[in-house]
# Entry
Amino acid sequence: MTLQAMIVSHDWQEVSVLECILNSLHITVDVHSDVDRARAQLAKSKVDAIIVDRDLSGTDQLIEHLPSSNSSVPLLLLHGTGRRSRADATFFFEKPVSVEDAVRTLSATRSLMLDGRLRYQRHSIDVPVSLSVGSKKKITAHAINVSRGGIGIHGPHMSELRGSFTVCFRLPGVKTRVEAQGELAWASRNGRAGIRFLEVPEQLERRMQMWLEKRYFAN
# Structure
């Protein structure tokens, strides 16, 4: 899978700079100089970042009425003469675009784009998992998928889990064991359950992030 950005601008000199940098970051780009066409695409598909040229007529309405499916993605505004009327924009570009500033800003944007993709992305796994409840009770189950926020499992007595507990398992291809605090998010009658991570050590969280990124781009 790849990350996807949209540029809405009629300034092809600035677009060429941004598009070149985005492509070097392995981000595919759709460019629209027509606001109506950009709005139509956003209404039917989700992108990971939106760059809007405020000097293009009609972009005020485009920004104010972004579809809900795209409302949480990074919004970058391209403008001349210091025009910064959108307080919740993620980043601003001044014209003419500086290559150095664009590389720095778009690199940071890529991290936000990837974070948004991985936040709810689940990857299938097939490994044993143990749940330690208190100091004595331990439940053995099987992990079927994992995300940054939790893990899907299958096993007996899932609906009986109460409060917080320790979740232990190994990611495929990783020697370090994942050990985190979790709680039951949901459970079904057929033994499936979702575990929400409550606390993951920072170093382990980074390793999980790297593992998830590698699996994401391998698909």
User: Anything to note?
Assistant: Helices lie at 12-24, 35-44, 59-64, 99-119, 202-218.
